[in-house]
Amino acid sequence: MIITIDGPTASGKSTVARMIAQKLGWYYLGSGYLYRSITYLLMNKFHYTEDALKAPKLDDVCAVTDPHRFHYSYVGNDPVITYDGEDITPYLKNKEMDLLTSVVATNPMVREKLLELQRHIGSKYNVVVEGRDIGSVVFPKADIKFFITAALEERARRWQEYMAEHQYMHYSLNEAANAITERDDRDSHRAHSPLIATADSVIIDNSGLDKEQTLNKMLEIIREKLSLC
After folding, report:
1. Residue 56: what pLDDT?
2. Which domain covers residue 3, as residue numbers?
3. Residue 224, CA distances (Å) to 70, 107, 133, 207, 209 in order
4. Structural domains counted in the chain
5. pTM, entire model
6. Which of 23, 66, 125, 158 is in Cβ range 3.0-4.6 Å of 27 for a Cys bridge?
């Protein structure tokens, strides 16, 4: 079975997806980790500059997504990504990856390669998958689809706190809102696999809800739809 969770930046989809996977005892697949991995590998193994990331070479994309070299696993409630046996997971959550991953994620060739990988994982497990085109493109026949969002001011506040907490940079609320709006626009208007809520998605607006309240609301829907206890 497959549950997809899509949504814009700072909607809380990654956090709640992992919580749902843990509650159900399912496999968690975070598409963001995959795109961050490709970005990291292109820059650190193939020495790409920021400008070069906009148009990666096919051979390089094939090399960094080679299933004999690139592995995604879900161990102890945490994603682990290795390349040539090296665990690269600790290098994926930082300011540089935050800023550059969205550049790589707009590339159709990259998205096509990662689509294959995500579907392969989805064929092996009961899985909770989150991202921006999961219910619309990657798993259009998923058992349950969610689209999570929140008011811009709420998402800006969350993003502002996240950036400060991880010691990336301090932003004013207005600066955070501008950054969120820019990312929303890029995700929603890209030519390939734009961020959308499909007609069969359950839309959750979690403005004013904490992560536990959001989780409980979604679990109630999941249990009802899948007839779980």
Report:
1. 95
2. 1-9+133-219
3. 37, 37, 24, 23, 21
4. 2
5. 0.91
6. 125
**Do both 43 and 59 map to the same domain?**
yes
Assigned token pair, 114: 């990662």
pLDDT of residue 93: 84
How many whole angstroms separate alpha carbon 97 and alpha carbon 93? 6
Q: Are residues 87 and 4 in the same domain?
A: no
**Pairing state between β 27-30 and 202-205:** unpaired
Same domain, 118 and 143: no
The mean pLDDT of the chain is 92
| HEC string for the chain | CEEEEECCCCCCHHHHHHHHHHHHCCEEEEHHHHHHHHHHHHHHCCCCCCCHHHCCCHHHHHHHCCCCCEEEEEECCEEEEEECCEECHHHCCCHHHHHHHHHHHCCHHHHHHHHHHHHHHHCCCCEEEEECCHHHHHCCCCCEEEEEECCHHHHHHHHHHHHHHCCCCCCCHHHHHHHHHHHHHHHHHCCCCCCCCCCCCEEEECCCCCHHHHHHHHHHHHHHHHCCC
Residues 6+ apart with CB under 8 A from 193: 108, 111, 132, 133, 136, 137
Q: Is residue 58 part of a domain?
A: yes
Residue 200's nearest CA partner among 134, 121, 115, 151 is 134
